[in-house]
Amino acid sequence: MNFNEPTLDYAGLSPVIALTVGLCVVLLSAVFKPVRRSAPGLTLLVLATAAGLLIWQWGDPKDLVSGALRIDDLSVAISLIAILTAGFCVLLSIREPATEQAGLGEYHALLLGSVLGMVLLAEAQNLVTFFVAIETLSIPLYILCATNLRREGSLESGLKYLIVGSLGSATLLYGMAFLYGGTASTDFAGIATGIAHKGMLDDPLILVGIAMCAVGLAFKTSIAPFHQWTPDVYEGAPTPITSFMAVATKAAAFAVFVRFFDVALGPQVDEWQPALAVLAAVSIVVGNVGALGQDSLKRLLGYSGIAQAGYMLGGIVVASESGVSALVFYLAAYAFMNLAAFAVIIARERETPFGDDIRAMRGLGAERPLLAWPLTISMLALAGLPATAGFIGKLYLIEALVESDYTWLGVFIAIGTMISLGYYLRVVATMWMRPEGGPATTPAIAGASPEADPIDPEAGKRLYLVGPALLAAAATVFFGVIPQPLVEFAERAGSSLF
Amino acid sequence: MEEVLFFVSAIGALGGAIGVVAMRNPFYSVLALIVHLFSLAALFLLLASAFVAAAQVVVYAGAVMVLYVFVVAYVGGGGESAWEPIPGQRLLAPALAIALFVELSIAILSSALLALGTEGPEVGPGFGNPEAIGKLLLEKFLIPFEASSILLLLAAIGAIVLAGRKREETA
Predict the structure, then answer these.
(1) Which of A67, A68, A178 sits opposite B107 (nearest CB)?
(2) Residue A450: is the preceding peptide bond cis (ω within 30°)?
(3) Domain ranges of chain A
(4) How many angstroms from the chain centroid is the CA of residue A87?
């Protein structure tokens, strides 16, 4: 049997190679004493290198290694969002008790492994790569969620995520098997021709395959009714990891969602379009109603993430270039909005005895204006107020929906936004209103107490927390006022699929 | 001969699967699962997929099952009820499960019944034999193959992270 070695395009593979090598270096750094404390710095260096290599590959679409991967503007854009989020997560993890308990090298190596999975997932255009990448993304996250042993919820969060995540993966894999059985191909393009060739509107094998793949991906992107794990896992995980999970996982999973459905299942669009539209609508309602009355800010952002995932699913439903562009724009805006909020939550979590409870925000406006402003901007942007990136993002999504005759889903987004004001404005009001009974720092028997976590009374002034918060908030406002650069970025990404 | 083997292993696979869920003692469930997995391996052999059959026996019926047996032996069955008191779960869960079962049956039967009396799909020579799979792993699926090695490394790091903390606590 002759062996035809696949052509390796090292330039195209360079971001993946950089992350893999970086992962090993960061892991080994824990072994040598002189560099033991340098894992965060090394991780930032690796992320910057990978980002640089990705930007170098921008605008040069090509298939890699016999079509297992495709590097194009969509995958580069999503990979950059994931890497940016990971960079923020490294900064926010400084002095986080979880990093010390897991070990600096191990914690950051796992984080890089998850980023590697995300980059592979964004580039995947083959069912086998798709599945291996989604597992490479998820397994480090299951562990990272459980790294804070002293907090009771952390291990529970990791275990819940593991079980629900595995169920999602199993469903996805089963669906993939059906699709392979129906089309005899694992390549996205091959599946598309297989479906078109059969004229397969009447093939239940492929229809069930599509349904199961959609369910599996809905688990990963936390779309209702497959969302129940989200608030619990977000609440229990160490907060920097929650921020990474909320933003980067969503970006990578949506990237493969859109590539898989628009490229591989494109011929079948009339069958899955209404189904996904209903899922999006359910998600918007469930997320926004669930967030009302949440006192834990991490749970609140979890439910808000479910609603936002519903908005973003609208970008996939329309199956058009403008839909993908709107999705990428929204993912980038969502990254900035959420990172600003999480940076403030982490600062207050270490500063006050209230953990991530909304009481930690009382009197923040008077006490720490540099933290109050980012959180205010983030909440207003998530609610979609004008002059923020969140507003522009929703505008593009609704525009794309109206173009493709899904106006009713656009109306759902508008209604969801109105409901969401109820909980976002509550956070803003808590921050800026004068605290009622005594100073905000009065220790109370807190329901959401951080248990044994050490409290750092100066956390609200630390540059590695305030800096990311201000940066993300500034980006949110900047792209809300001058959206053009980000719009171009998103449009380039959107045009790579059609 | 083929027919006899098929029906024997098909009955074994179904019986084993029913046994897994029907047995009260988790240890018997694990044993039933081994019966199920061995029968599946026999079915794979009938389909001329020697590699998948071998992997099934070595990895699942061998390594994974040993792990299960250990876990069951350590943790034990326990008297805990499997039912969490979620309102409506007792009614809703079976209803949804039956709906899913019907849906999957329609999908599988619709294609399987069409193939009755035919020779089945045409595949090239050597499809699914170990040689062809090895070639695929190093040619077409090189990236997933390498990525799985990273995945295993990450899982190993994770296991050490989670297990190592406990030692620190007791120390």
Answers:
(1) A178
(2) no
(3) 270-498
(4) 14
Nearest to B151 among A1, A132, A203 (CB): A132
Q: What would you measure as the largest C-alpha separation in chain A, in angstroms?
A: 81
- Strand pairing report for A62-64 and A69-71: antiparallel
Read off the tokens for B23. Answer: 């047995």
Count Cα atoms within 13 angstroms, Cβ side, for A483: 20
Name the β-bridge partners of A187. A126
Q: Taking CA B103 as the corner, what is the angle to CA B101 and CA B107, rounded to the nearest 5 degrees? A: 115
| B13 vs B28: CA distance, rounded Å | 15
Confidence check: pLDDT of B169 > 60: no
Span of A290-299, A399-408, A434-443, B7-16 with lowest mean pLDDT? A434-443
Token pair in block for residue B82? 């499997």
pLDDT higher than 60, residue B22 = yes
| Nearest C-alpha in A relative to B151 | A136
Within a 13 Å sphere around the CA of A323, how many CA atoms are in the beta-carbon half? 29
Mean pLDDT value across chain A: 89
Q: Is 0.90 topped by the overall pTM?
A: yes
CB contact under 8 A, A136 and B154: yes
- Neighbouring residues of A258: CB distance < 8 A, sequence distance ≥ 6: A74, A315, A316, A324, A327, A497
Strand-pair partners of A69: A64, A124
A6: three-class secondary structure by DSSP: coil
In the structure encoding, which two tokens stand for residue B133, read together?
């799979």
User: Which of A99, A119, A132, A176 best tests the B interface by mutation, with the highest count of B CBs <10 A?
Assistant: A132
Cis preceding linkage at A225, omega within 30: yes
Chain A: nearest CA to B109, how far in angstroms?
9
Give A262's contacts (C-beta < 8 A, 6+ positions apart).
A316, A319, A324, A497, A498
pLDDT, one tens digit per residue, over B131-142 is: 888 888 888 899
Interacting residues of B170 by C-beta distance below 8 A, sequence separation 6+: none
pLDDT for position A108: 94
Q: What is the pLDDT of residues B72-102, one digit of tens each?
A: 888 766 655 555 667 777 888 889 999 999 9
pLDDT of A389: 93
Please answer whether residues A83 and A114 qualify as being in contact, where contact means their C-beta atoms are separated by less than 8 angstroms. no
Confidence of residue B68 (pLDDT cuts 50, 70, 90): confident
Q: What three-state secondary structure class fits A450?
A: coil
Q: Which residues of A touch B143 (CB under 8 A)?
A: 64-65, 68-69, 120, 129
CA separation for the pair B32, B20 (Å, rounded): 5
pLDDT at A202 over 90: no
- Contact (Cβ atoms closer than 8 angstroms) between residue A261 and residue A391: no
Mean pLDDT across the stretch A462-478?
Answer: 92
Residue carrying structure tokens 């170990």: B130
- Kindly report the nearest CA distance between residue B139 and chain A, in angstroms: 5
Across the interface, whether the CB atoms of A205 and B107 are under 8 A apart is answered: yes
Tens-place pLDDT, residues A105-146: 999 999 999 999 999 999 999 999 999 999 999 999 999 999
Question: What are the E-state strand segments in A140-213?
Answer: none
Q: How far apart are CA B171 and CA B169, in angstroms?
A: 5
Angle between helices A321-351 and A484-495 (to 10 degrees): 130
* 3-class SS of residue A71: strand
> Amino acid identity of A171?
T
Q: Please report the pLDDT score of residue B90 as a whole number.
A: 80
